[in-house]
Amino acid sequence: MPVHEIRHPLVRHKLGLMRRADLSTKNFREMAQEVAALLTYEASKDLPLEPTKIDGWAGELEVEKIAGKKITVVPILRAGIGMLDGVLSLIPGAKVSAIGIARNEETLQAHTYLERLVGQLDQRLALIVDPMLATGGSMVATIDMLKKAGCRHIRALVLVAAPEGIGAVESAHPDVDIYTASIDSHLNEDGYIIPGLGDAGDRIFGTRQKDG
Ligand SMILES: O=P(O)(O)OC[C@H]1O[C@H](OP(=O)(O)OP(=O)(O)O)[C@H](O)[C@@H]1O
Ligand SMILES: O=c1cc[nH]c(=O)[nH]1
Ligand SMILES: [Mg+2]
Predict the structure, then answer these.
(1) What confidence score (pLDDT) does residue 1 get?
(2) Is residue 184 within 8 Å of 161, Cβ to Cβ?
(3) 192 Cβ closer than 6 Å to some ligand 2 atom
(4) 10 bridge partner residues
(5) Where are the domains of the chain?
(6) Beta-bridge mates of residue 53
(7) What is the pLDDT of residue 208?
(8) Which terms are listed as keywords in the entry (predicted)?
(9) Ligand 1 closest atom vs CA 77
(10) Separation CA 40–CA 25 (nearest Å)
């Protein structure tokens, strides 16, 4: 399973800004969408094309279009919503499959509370989006669901990945490629990525405890 760490200068710069503890919710949100768009650009580089005939201004000609059924974007709620518009800015026709998973703060086990997948998954590429790949429990559970529904082509886009999470996805689903803006150092004793971004869901939704 290849892991693609996208070291493009724009990605490095934006991620550097996102790591600032004093970044406003507004700016954090905007940058999450921008980095998501850049990851989407990289993750779509090798999509297969097929020829199609069109009427051009000077007559009929053959152009190319992306082959196959429409892609499905799979945000893992909540925090994955923070990357969704960034992906859709480049793939506006994509279908959205929503998965709701919350990690138990004590046990770190992933608990699924929503599964709304689009149809014909056996014929679609699925792009899972979630800002954080920590223990990997949420990502592995999402891939399990997609595969159970027949999906065979799956890629994961995450802003920050811990080596522990990469290892978990790699051993459970070696066929799934991961695209990330950074492979960080490790998880702390509470299961948070170091240096990471903190709690991505709270930063995107403005629900930090200290904000009341
Ligand atoms: O790799 P894991 O150890 O499973 O952790 C990563 C998950 O934790 C966060 O979500 P959280 O459970 O906090 O839910 P939220 O998006 O609703 O805040 C994050 O957005 C991932 O989904
Ligand atoms: O560092 C982490 C780990 C899990 N979830 C987050 O939001 N951040
Ligand atoms: Mg959270």
Answers:
(1) 63
(2) yes
(3) yes
(4) none
(5) 3-211
(6) 62
(7) 76
(8) Allosteric enzyme, Glycosyltransferase, GTP-binding, Magnesium, Nucleotide-binding, Transferase
(9) 16
(10) 22
* Measured distance CA(78)–CA(58) in Å, rounded: 49
Give residue for tokens 């080596």: 163
d(CA 159, CA 17): 13
Domain 3-211 falls under CATH 3.40.50.150: no
Query: Are the C-beta atoms of 15 and 25 separated by less than 8 Å?
Result: no
| pLDDT tens digits for range 33-51 | 999 999 999 999 999 999 9
| Residue 143 Cα to ligand 2 middle (Å) | 18
pLDDT at position 183, please? 98
- For residue 210, the model assigns a pLDDT of 54
**Strand runs (DSSP E) across the chain, as ranges?**
3-5, 49-56, 59-66, 72-77, 95-96, 98-103, 110-116, 125-129, 132-133, 153-161, 177-183, 186-187, 193-194
**Are residues 62 and 52 in contact, defined by beta-carbon separation less than 8 angstroms?**
yes
